[in-house]
């Protein structure tokens, strides 16, 4: 098989009989109806037409664990943005490029929200071939090249139309799809097994934390009714209180949007909070000028502050051990007073009982977001300070083997996903010759 230069850096060389075409020649790009009939919270119903949001897009397609619906009457009034079977749905604001292939199997109809766009392939492009391409690093590099905005990237209809895609004839597309369906299915099963193991380990971790922060370390301690139904009994000499009464400071990051740099000061987001710690090494970087602006805006935590994610993956926590960084607005800074230990607070926030408490405040909300006002309403179990420190010491010792196991499995999952992405990229850019391959 002979190759030629594609002329596109992120596609590199492609088979000689493949062509590079702009997406506008391969598919119709459709944005949603943003007019007066665009659904608001009052238009949401218990059952009806699926109203897709970013929460429904995951790394390998759609996630329907959290869904919203609009009525058929509201759907009929809308113009653009109605999804058909085999459409590709992609996010065009914020975390751009996440994509799903709408099969029509789980839900027959859907409407996209304002952060999405529909890519509807023409007859010369198989939807699944394009879907596989959206799973490659080449797709992400392509979007990053054309996107505008800094902290909040965006894609427009016109930009999507200009994206270059390498395509063979339909026969080769179908062979690539058949090859990848087989290979990716095997890899996905292994990933799923390891993710289930991670979930089991995390549940075990959370159970250990919850037991310690609600019952203490002494199994023979006398218990009393906490006076809070969802908390139940606690040790007799412990108290429950509004968390805000034990905080010297509660604030969050700024909505100022700094420019991302290859080298600079760490800019911490939700993804950087990992099991009570902060991943500074892999954090985004910003300039010294923007860093100083955010410091002045109060976005730099102090040593021993606790960070809590209030947007995205809600409830992730970390204790600040070094503070040469600033935070995104999706994080809150909690500064305990002298009667509450930072590490104990971190463990309390991680506990299942507190996660359930936070979920109760989010129930029915159109946007899953903790506000500072909501955080002020959180209740907390408060042992004496000396017991807080004993609980922290015990938990840190008990959680070491669990955290090491979780980290090991997480690294294995990461490598499998990298292999998966590489396999897809090699196939959809023609670097793997699938023409004469026998697929089991």
CATH class of the largest domain: Alpha Beta
Q: Estimate the helix proportion, in percent.
A: 25-40%
Number of helices: 11
Question: From the helix content, strand content and strand pairing, which structural class follows?
Answer: alpha+beta
Which band does the percent of strand residues land in? 15-25%
Primary descriptors:
single chain, 440 residues, alpha+beta, Adenine-n6-DNA-methyltransferase TaqI, Chain A, domain 2, 5-stranded mixed beta sheet, 4-stranded antiparallel beta sheet, 11 helices, 36% helix
Give a brief rundown of this model.
By secondary structure, the chain is of the alpha+beta class.
Write the layout of secondary structure elements.
Layout: E1 3-5, E2 13-15, E3 19-22, H1 23-26, E4 27-30, E5 44-45, E6 49-52, E7 57-58, E8 61-62, E9 69-70, H2 72-77, E10 82-83, E11 88-91, E12 99-101, E13 110-112, E14 116-121, H3 127-133, H4 137-146, H5 157-162, E15 164-167, H6 170-215, E16 223-225, E17 233-235, E18 239-242, E19 247-252, E20 260-261, E21 265-268, E22 273-274, E23 277-278, E24 284-286, H7 288-296, E25 306-309, E26 317-319, E27 326-327, E28 331-336, H8 342-350, H9 352-362, H10 372-376, E29 379-382, H11 385-428
Helix pairs in contact: 6-8, 6-11
């Amino acid at each position: 098989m002979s190759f030629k230069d594609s002329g596109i850096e992120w596609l590199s060389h492609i088979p000689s009989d493949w062509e590079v075409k702009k997406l506008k020649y391969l598919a119709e790009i459709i944005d949603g109806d943003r007019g007066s009939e665009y659904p608001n919270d009052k238009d949401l119903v218990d059952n009806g037409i699926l109203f897709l949001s970013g929460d429904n897009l995951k790394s390998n397609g759609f996630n329907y664990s959290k869904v919203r619906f609009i009525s058929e009457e509201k759907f009929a009034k809308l113009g653009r943005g109605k999804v058909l079977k085999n459409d590709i749905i992609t996010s065009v604001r914020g975390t751009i490029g996440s994509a799903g292939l709408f099969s029509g199997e789980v839900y027959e109809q859907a409407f996209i929200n304002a952060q999405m766009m529909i890519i509807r392939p023409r007859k010369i492009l198989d939807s699944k071939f394009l879907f596989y391409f959206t799973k490659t690093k080449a797709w992400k590099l392509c979007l990053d090249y054309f996107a505008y905005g800094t902290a909040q990237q965006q894609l427009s209809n016109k930009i999507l139309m200009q994206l270059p895609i390498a395509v063979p004839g339909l026969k080769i597309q179908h062979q690539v799809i058949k090859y990848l369906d087989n290979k990716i299915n095997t890899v996905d099963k292994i990933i799923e097994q390891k993710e289930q193991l991670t979930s089991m380990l995390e549940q075990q971790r959370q159970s250990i934390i919850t037991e310690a922060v609600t019952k203490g370390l002494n199994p023979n301690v006398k218990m009393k009714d906490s006076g809070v139904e969802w908390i139940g009994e606690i040790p007799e000499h412990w108290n429950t209180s509004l968390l805000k009464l034990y905080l010297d400071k509660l604030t969050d990051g700024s909505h100022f949007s700094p420019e991302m740099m290859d080298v600079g000061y760490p800019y911490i987001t939700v993804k950087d909070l990992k099991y009570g710690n902060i991943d500074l090494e892999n954090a985004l970087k910003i300039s010294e000028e923007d860093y100083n602006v955010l410091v002045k805006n109060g976005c730099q935590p102090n040593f021993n502050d606790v960070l809590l994610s209030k947007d995205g993956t809600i409830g992730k926590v970390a204790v600040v051990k070094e503070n040469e960084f600033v935070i995104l607005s999706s994080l809150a800074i909690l500064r305990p007073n002298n009667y509450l230990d930072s590490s104990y607070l971190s463990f309390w926030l991680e506990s299942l009982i507190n996660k359930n408490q936070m979920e109760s405040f989010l129930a029915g909300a159109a946007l899953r977001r903790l506000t500072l006002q909501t955080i002020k309403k959180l209740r907390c179990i408060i042992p004496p300070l000396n017991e807080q420190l004993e609980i922290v010491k015990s938990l840190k010792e008990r959680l070491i083997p669990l955290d090491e196991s979780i980290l090991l499995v997480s690294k294995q999952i990461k490598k499998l996903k990298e292999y998966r992405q590489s396999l897809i990229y090699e196939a959809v850019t023609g670097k793997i010759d699938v023409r004469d391959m026998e697929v089991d």
